[in-house]
Structures are given as structure tokens and as C-alpha cells.
Amino acid sequence: MKKLTVLLIVCLAVITTSYADENKQNDDYRAKVTEHHKFFQAGVGEWKLEQKMWMDPTKEPMIATGTSICKSILDGRATTVHVETTSAMGTFKGFGVFTWNGKDKKYECSWVDVYSHYGLDSMEGTHDSKTNVTTWTSKMIDPMTGTEMDVSMIEKYPNEDTMVSEFYVHINGSTIKTMENTYTRIKKSADKADSAASATVEITPEPEPAEAPEKK
């Protein structure tokens, strides 16, 4: 059995290497970076996060503040998001990976955070270019009851430096808003320097010297 396993591993390695050698000139064996992958690049950077959470939709939301850091990985084939906030409940930390599924033609996300009692959460997304709205859907296990629920996240982009995410739970035909995140891009000092360098500088000409009076 061990010999068979080793033989299979060797065969797979030979096939993979052979395929890579045949296509190394045009990189056909690699996933192509498409416009859908580039869609996530607009979010790369550091963001200030203001969060509202409703434990009870009839009451005022709990407020949390923090940061969200988005990075491009794998030469633009995916992006990672690391979120950290502070609220009355303490410190929250979460981490997600976003990419494009070229086979099923949809956006995908895997997410884990300090409240992930059941491991990774997965979401599938679509983007409407006409309204510039991204809709994510998933199923979530309620950690309090253990029951499965349909959930959705709606992302809107008022401008290139602002993003708003709204989270909803769908139960028994009712849609309940549970959270709203507002992200504001944090400008880096380099960005400020670039802006200053590109600013128009007006130079006031020096006054011409007065002519000396003629001698009589």
C-alpha cells in the first residue's frame, strides 16, 4: 500500500512538472487575473471603521470603532482583509480572503473571527455594475441556538474613499438588519506628499526697483 501511494505521488509530480514545462512560456497553468479579480483592488489600503450592531432591532445599536486593512496577494488573484474593532463587548478580530471563481462565475469569500464557533464562514457574491452594489449571501449557524439562518451583506460605494456594508438575517420570511459598517479610507502621508507636490504654486513677482531721480 505504501509503495502504491509513493508511486501515485511520483506520477502526479511528473505530470504536474511536465504540464508546467510545456506551458511555462505563456503561464497557461496559472489562474488568469481578470477584471473580476481587479474589482477587489479598489479596496486595497487601510480604512477607518465605524460599526453599528443591533442585538435587538427595537433598541439603539451598540457602537464599535476600529480599522480594516486590505492587502492584495498572489499577484492580484485574491485580497485579504483584517478587521479589528473595540466596543463595550471588548476587542473583535476577524480575517477574510476574497477572490473570483472563474469556473462558477461568482465572487467568493472565506471568513473567520473570534466568534467563529463553527469554523470558516463562506459567502458568494455578485456585483451589479449599473447600481454599483455588491450582494453577498451565505448561511450562518446561530451560536446561541445552533440553528442555520440565511444571511446577506449589501455593499455600497458612495465614492472611492467610502464603503458601506449592511448585514441582514432572514428568518421566517422576515429580514432583520443586524449590522452596518462604514469604512473611510485612511490617507497615507505619502498620499499627502503627492498631493502637495502636485498642487499649483503661485509665485508673486518681485517689484521692479524704482528709477533713480535725474541729476540737475
Q: Can you describe this structure?
A:
It is a single chain. The protein is α+β, with helices and mostly antiparallel strands and 216 residues long. The chain has two domains: 30 residues; 153 residues, Calycin beta-barrel core domain (Lipocalin, Beta Barrel). The protein contains three helices and ten strands; from the N terminus they run H-H-E-E-E-E-E-E-E-E-E-E-H. Strand 8 and strand 9 form a beta hairpin. It is globular and about 50 Å long.
Topology:
Blueprint: H1 2-23, H2 35-38, E1 45-53, E2 62-73, E3 78-87, E4 90-101, E5 106-113, E6 121-128, E7 133-141, E8 148-159, E9 162-171, E10 174-185, H3 189-198
Antiparallel strand pairs: 1-2, 1-10, 2-3, 3-4, 4-5, 5-6, 6-7, 7-8, 8-9, 9-10
Number of strands: 10
CATH superfamily of the largest domain: Calycin beta-barrel core domain
Distance between the termini: 121 Å
Radius of gyration, in Å, reads 27 Å
Structural domain count: 2
Strand line-up in the sheet with most strands:
1-2-3-4-5-6-7-8-9-10
CATH topology of the largest domain: Lipocalin
Just name the CATH architecture of the largest domain. Answer: Beta Barrel
Shape: globular
> From N to C, what is the helix and strand string?
HHEEEEEEEEEEH
The percent range for helix content is: 10-25%
Mean pLDDT: 80
Class by alpha and beta content: alpha+beta
User: What percent of residues are in strands?
Assistant: over 45%
SS element count, helices: 3
